[in-house]
């Protein structure tokens, strides 16, 4: 196998024997490359047949198979890269994607333009964990949302994002909402004496999301929120590679890939794939929240987001769900400082108001610096 | 609940008791709408809180919960519709999407421009099942692919599609490939005396797929192939609503949604969602092939693709995988005539050549008219 010509992908294969695992590894190598019986492949295309590399027994009925693919299968098309990774093999009930050649990722994808270091520079927070409040719900007016943004920023929150369900509804159209929220945050910064970044949600039709991104930049947004499984992953990459403002990726519609037995290993999905496609901040469903990952998986996602993957920068793991003033101390201890905590509903339940809630939350983060 | 103001979505909920099912249904209704504790929702947005409707015990630990959502949550944004359907709830290990309000689908989505009736008109085949051959593999030259297309069309195949891995690789760039294959098919039609439609693959970056579609039309393609889970589903809709040429949807990257315990019920995914987003032909992994659906699921997909969903037209269910001369007779009997059979690898293994293989295949279809 020629390393310069190939890249590798690791699949978890469920099999009844070593021989069954070998057959299935072979099946993936063909399915994800030429997709026809090898003996019918014309001579000119023979080098495109996927090659089975290391096959390793893990435990019980589980094997890891490394498949080597010719880079010509992808040939610079990033959406086709996803197809080679997990197009038809996503339909196999015995196959999961568990690792990807990081050298190859670094050679074809730009990764985040800002990453952990860049977002720290923009927020002027050197070491501690960052906070992110959420503007919601759909149905609130731009004036109401801007008032929330003002309160959160007055309380000194580091980042504010739109709820991922705020798009361009009549109740708070994109243009008016972003204008008013940007103004509110800039005004509150005067009061708080610190930076707060506002990330409006730009998720919409894949063919129009780039326009909405450009409009967000023009309106003075400090970053954007996008749900890449809804817009297509390459939309995220197109936006990130403009290197204009940071991008936060939301996990909406990604669940089936990461919570099931068959799919993509969560650390690889969030920490490698979404990061390599350009997310500066990668939101994942936190263990203590309403969703399903256990704390160990969350720590693996954190580690993978921060891991060395040169030239791709580390991305900020961003934990969402079940985070409040009672849980934050333990979370910082267990997750470390290089993390953003999304605090949604819990801030709204605080009786003393949003600004006080934000202030107490910031204090808790500072305490654990 | 105001029917004109709301639409419903049915979720399968795994629960330990009626009470647990009620709690989880309530959780979905909030998660997919305002995403904050109802008592913190401002008055203006109160009508946007999702409402739990019928909750029905199915069996064992399984309930069906109908949730009613305010149409204002979507407000004309089709990508946001997907988010309300299965954004955050895709991350819940006890939640699957099992049905969608077809009246609402018909009110916001255009569905296929051609559908079963339109594709029959274009192919001039009134009643029998249709055949579709596949050009492959990646690595073959445009001349080689065009020669295959010529052979298949000479043998009288109804449709020819690109392999979904053929994009714009140097080995057969889009422009040259489509030109040569269109020419080859037109030439072969003179010989066969019947129509053959050629569908090149246009799957690429979500922000550039529309351009590639327009180029395909200009180059004389009779239809296009697209993998909507890779380009984002709304790209499919944007293309279909141009009403230019029919669109065939490929299931690449959709597996995690449909083969796992938690996800989207396959008949709903293929027969309602992909169809409503505009696919004239919906490819699904066939039971007798390399993939995982059982024959009953395949029949449900067929039925749902063909079901009445006015004003959305019926789409051609398109079975792929494990179809050859030995299985075709039984398949037509069991699946009926309103189906397209994809025949990939098996035609290439035929010793007498592609044209003869295609001819025999056509004969088998005609026999069961």
Description:
The structure is a homodimer of 369-residue chains. Chain A has 369 residues and is of the alpha/beta class. In chain A, 40% of the residues lie in helices and 18% in strands. Chain A has 15 helices and twelve strands. In chain A, the strands form two sheets. The first copy, chain A, has an eight-stranded parallel sheet with strand order 7-6-5-12-11-10-9-8, sandwiched between helices. A four-stranded antiparallel sheet of chain A has the order 2-3-1-4. In chain A, α5 links the parallel β5 and β6. In chain A, α5 packs parallel to α6, α5 packs parallel to α15 and α11 packs parallel to α12. The mean pLDDT of chain A is 95. The interface between A and B is large, with 84 and 84 residues.
Please report the number of helical segments of chain A.
15
Extract low-pLDDT stretches of chain A.
none
Strand content of chain A: 15-25%
Quaternary state reads homodimer
Calculate the terminal CA-CA distance of chain A, rounded to whole Å: 48 Å
Radius of gyration of chain A: 22 Å
Strand element count of chain A? 12
Helix and strand pattern of chain A: EHEEHEHHEHEHEHEHHEHHEHEHEHH
Shape label of chain A: elongated
Biggest sheet strand line-up of chain A:
7-6-5-12-11-10-9-8
Averaged pLDDT of chain A: 95
The main sheet of chain A comes to: 8 strands, parallel
List keywords for this structure.
homodimer, 369 residues, alpha/beta, 12 strands, 18% strand, elongated
């Amino acid at each position: 196998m020629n390393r310069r010509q190939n890249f590798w992908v690791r699949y978890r294969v469920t099999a009844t024997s070593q021989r069954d695992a070998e057959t299935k590894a072979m099946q993936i190598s063909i399915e994800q490359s030429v997709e026809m019986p090898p003996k019918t492949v014309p001579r000119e295309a023979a080098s495109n047949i996927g090659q089975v590399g290391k096959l390793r027994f893990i435990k019980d009925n589980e094997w890891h198979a490394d498949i080597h693919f010719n880079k010509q299968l992808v040939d610079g098309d990033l959406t086709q890269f996803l197809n080679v990774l997990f197009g038809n093999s996503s339909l196999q009930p015995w196959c999961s994607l568990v690792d990807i050649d990081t050298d190859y990722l670094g050679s074809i994808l730009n990764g985040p333009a800002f990453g952990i270091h860049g977002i720290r520079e923009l927020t002027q927070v050197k070491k501690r964990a960052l906070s992110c409040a959420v503007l919601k719900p759909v149905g609130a007016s731009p004036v109401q949302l801007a008032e929330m943004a003002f309160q959160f920023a007055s309380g000194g929150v580091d980042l504010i994002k739109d709820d991922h369900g705020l798009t361009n509804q009549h109740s708070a159209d994109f243009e008016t909402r972003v204008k008013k929220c940007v103004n509110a945050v800039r005004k509150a910064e005067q009061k708080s004496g610190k930076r707060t970044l506002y990330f409006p949600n730009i998720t919409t039709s894949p063919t129009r999301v780039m326009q909405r991104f450009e409009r967000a930049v023009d309106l003075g947004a400090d970053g954007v929120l996008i749900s890449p499984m809804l817009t297509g992953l390459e939309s995220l990459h197109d936006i990130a590679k403009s290197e204009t403002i940071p991008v936060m990726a939301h996990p909406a519609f990604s669940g089936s890939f990461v919570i099931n037995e068959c799919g993509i290993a969560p650390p690889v999905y969030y920490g490698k794939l979404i990061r390599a496609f350009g997310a500066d901040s990668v939101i994942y469903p936190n263990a203590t929240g309403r969703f399903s990952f256990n704390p160990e998986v969350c720590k693996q996602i954190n580690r993978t987001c921060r891991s060395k993957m040169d030239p791709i920068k580390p991305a900020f793991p961003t934990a969402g769900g079940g985070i409040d003033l009672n849980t934050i101390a333990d979370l910082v201890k267990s997750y470390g400082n290089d993390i953003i905590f999304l605090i949604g509903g819990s801030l709204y339940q605080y009786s003393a108001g949003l600004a006080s809630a934000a202030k107490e939350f910031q204090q808790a983060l500072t305490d654990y610096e």
